[in-house]
């Protein structure tokens, strides 16, 4: 009868446990020697609190095991401030209230599209931190919008000059954000909310202007039609004058003869040009 040595059996299991422990330690501590930066991100490197200037772009990188990698988004992002609850970055109503040129308060919905410049990510992390949208972008949006809206009357930003105002906001905001490593892509001035009475009066005025433009178009069209008819009548008058002056008896006789050439049974008889009598052959 075979006898199993307990020490041999436990030694075998102990060896497997040792291998497993070694593999586990390699996975835990070995991962500190590399990092993977996903697409649309950049890795900011810091060593004992000191931020390095060179970022890790997307991909696999070897690193110092004591080095910390903070990943930051470099994709296109948006910051929205809206009068609608829950639509913007904050849950409550977050529209921007600004005064127009005539001192009227208007509420504006705006969306700013931007992205973090990868080569400046370490500067942004060092100087501002990860919440740069709330620390820098939001205050600059509010400041620039109030500065620009103060240059326009309410009816202008409500209608035809909204895009012009949005472009001015873009230009001024870009001047403030670009030096900080944030690149602006677009500014969307999505909605302008005026006081109710003012909005109604502007709508009525715009409707009246459209009606006036329509009537001007009709009058211009009728004036051109009248001019066309005058030119046509003058042409007909001139044509009749020319024709009446050219209708001599000889020309009328010629036209009459011309009209007979296609009539059946017509016989041409030559006449004497001196007395108009028919000429018969042999007489």
From TrEMBL:
Q: Does the keyword Protease apply?
A: no
On the tree of life, the source organism's domain of life is Bacteria
Q: Which GO terms describe its biological process?
A: mitochondrion organization
Residue ranges occupied by any Band domain in the UniProt entry: 32-206
- Record-linked Gene3D superfamilies: Band 7 domain (3.30.479.30)
InterPro entries from the UniProt entry: Band_7 (IPR001107), Band_7/SPFH_dom_sf (IPR036013), Prohibitin (IPR000163)
Checking SUPFAM superfamilies in the record gives:
Band 7/SPFH domain (SSF117892)
Keyword line:
Membrane
**What is the protein name for this chain?**
Band 7 domain-containing protein
Give yes or no: UniProt keyword Membrane.
yes
Lineage of the organism = Bacteria, Candidatus Magasanikiibacteriota
Q: What is the organism field in this record?
A: Candidatus Magasanikbacteria bacterium RIFCSPHIGHO2_02_FULL_51_14
Q: What is its main location?
A: membrane
GO cellular component terms attached to this protein's record: membrane
Its subcellular locations are: Membrane
């Amino acid at each position: 009868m075979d006898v199993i040595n307990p020490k041999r059996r436990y030694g075998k299991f102990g060896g497997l446990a040792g291998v497993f422990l070694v593999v586990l330690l390699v996975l835990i501590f070995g991962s500190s020697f590399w990092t993977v930066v996903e697409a649309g991100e950049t890795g900011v490197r810091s060593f004992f609190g000191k931020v390095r200037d060179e970022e890790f772009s997307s991909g696999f990188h070897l690193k110092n095991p004591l080095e910390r990698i903070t990943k930051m988004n470099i994709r296109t992002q948006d910051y929205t401030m809206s009068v609608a609850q829950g639509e913007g970055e904050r849950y409550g109503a977050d529209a921007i209230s600004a005064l127009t040129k005539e001192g009227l308060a208007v509420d504006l919905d705006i969306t700013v599209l931007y992205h973090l410049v990868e080569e400046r990510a370490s500067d942004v992390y060092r100087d501002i931190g990860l919440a740069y949208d709330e620390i820098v972008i939001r205050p600059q949006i509010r400041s620039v919008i109030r500065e620009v809206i103060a240059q326009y009357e309410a009816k202008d930003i409500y209608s035809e000059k909204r895009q012009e105002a949005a472009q001015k906001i873009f230009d001024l905001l870009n001047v403030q954000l670009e030096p900080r490593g944030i690149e602006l892509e677009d500014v969307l001035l999505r909605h302008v909310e005026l006081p109710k009475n003012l909005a109604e009066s502007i709508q009525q005025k715009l409707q009246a202007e459209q009606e006036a433009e329509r009537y001007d178009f009709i009058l211009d069209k009728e004036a051109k039609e009248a001019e066309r008819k005058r030119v046509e009548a003058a042409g007909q008058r001139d044509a009749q004058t020319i024709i009446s002056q050219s209708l001599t008896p000889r020309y009328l006789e010629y036209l009459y003869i011309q009209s007979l050439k296609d009539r059946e049974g017509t016989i041409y008889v030559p006449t004497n040009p001196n007395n108009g009598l028919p000429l018969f052959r042999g007489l």
